[in-house]
User: Fold NADP-dependent aldehyde dehydrogenase from Humibacillus xanthopallidus.
Amino acid sequence: MTSASIATPVEAPVDGASETSWDPRTGAPVGETPTTPAEQVEATLALAAAAAPLVASSAPSTRADWLRALADTLEQPSVAGELVALADRETALGLPRLQSELARTASQLRFYADVAEEGSYLRATIDSRTATSPDVARVQVPLGPVAVFGASNFPFGFGVLGNDTASALAAGCPVVAKAHPAHPQLSARLADVATTALEAAGAPEGTFALVAGFAAGTEMVTSRHTAAVAFTGSQRGGLALWRLANEREVVIPVFAEMGTVNPVVVTRAAVGRFDAIAAGAVASFTLGAGQFCTKPGLLLAPAGSEAAARVGAALEAAAPSAWHLTRQIAATATSGIGELTVAGATVVADVPAPDSGWGSRATVLRAPVSALTRGSRLLEECFGPVLVVAEYGDDDELERALGELQGALAASIMTSGADDPETPGLLTRLAGLVGRVTVDDWPTGVAWTWAQQHGGPWPATTAPGATSVGAAALDRFTRPVAFQSAPDHALPPALQAANPWRLPRRVDGRMVPASTVDAEAPGPNPTPGTGPSS
Assistant:
């Protein structure tokens, strides 16, 4: 459940001494938050770099304790109430939604604590010496300080303490996060809560910090102290950071999760339940004013289904209306509708925006399937409550349309049920385009689970093999190192014969669960991988 934030740090025109906080319901300013001077940004990153060895060498269970302590702090009634009220003032997302999101954030922190403690993300692997090969032991090691650029539309779940920060800390990396200009006051308060909670839990100084301002964002990426970047936002913002990182003398990875057009394919047999599909489409593409990176942006339905008219009727019946997070997002959504019509689409139905503040008209458009060609504006994201509907005539026409799509985060198949004969082929086809395929389920919900994949082929992300949600999110912030013929006492704890961190490990090709390790395992063994506990 992330967002392609239009108001990204790399897109701000200039820095001032402060960032203005706005009320989306009225468009009125509600306060100022100081930006971070360049010398302070560098000092903050240097402190994170100094903390990095301490954070990396801490046991996964210790880091898990830090994350759980932070989750507990967020759930304290006085803290939670203050944070939710502040978030609502800056985002207009509403108290019920924000209370739920804050609870989700605490659960995410505990989930990543569990992933760290379980330990399989380290992929500890030990090969004993043989007549033809030396002993070799391999493990994932933390990269170092991670610069986190959170999302606008999920100020808790994907903000400065969201999935990126939680997974980086779980993996053993300090985090320096950038305050989001859509909610700078909330970002600052979350940072205060986090640093206090982490310090109380025993985390080293420099484990987490916050900076603010456009220039600070640039410094975060270019500083020699930064080892990796995690970003959730627009393609323009993510690619700008990616270019900065690749222009460094020492290139660092940028894990950018960016906005895309997420396609929905309706099978022929599913047309019989299209009214339900239309209602589901409206609920999904207008959820949160369409400010989800997983929002379905293109619906492909069989010819003769009158899909656009039926989705348009469902939109008018629902009449959703919500505020956008920033003035720029509202303006971009409105101008995007105009660009889609220039590209060949026709407005079928729309409903009014809120009377005041920042909003745009929720809109359904119809486009000829022949207009869906590579490079067309019809196949680019319109971040807001906007859906393009096209009808395909036969398998060849559908295949041609799918072949024109960019990589995306998610795709959905709407079927007639479990026995729909088109489902297997479409699953295989869409898996080549996206990171997640849903069947009879809408994509605007991303659960934090062990199997989750929230990423996708370029340009959905800058790293198609990575995920920003789920247990595998930790993989982004580690790299593998092999140790050959090293004495046991010199190895990282994850590889020592006594297995002091009690991790699941692969030893001589066989998985050895942590639960099978003798709690009274002997001390270091001179040859890794040969002790009784291995």
In short: Residues 40-259+470-474 form a domain with the Aldehyde Dehydrogenase; Chain A, domain 1 fold (CATH 3.40.605.10). Residues 1-13, 518-534 have pLDDT under 50 and may be disordered. The CA atoms of residues 167 and 474 lie 5 Å apart.
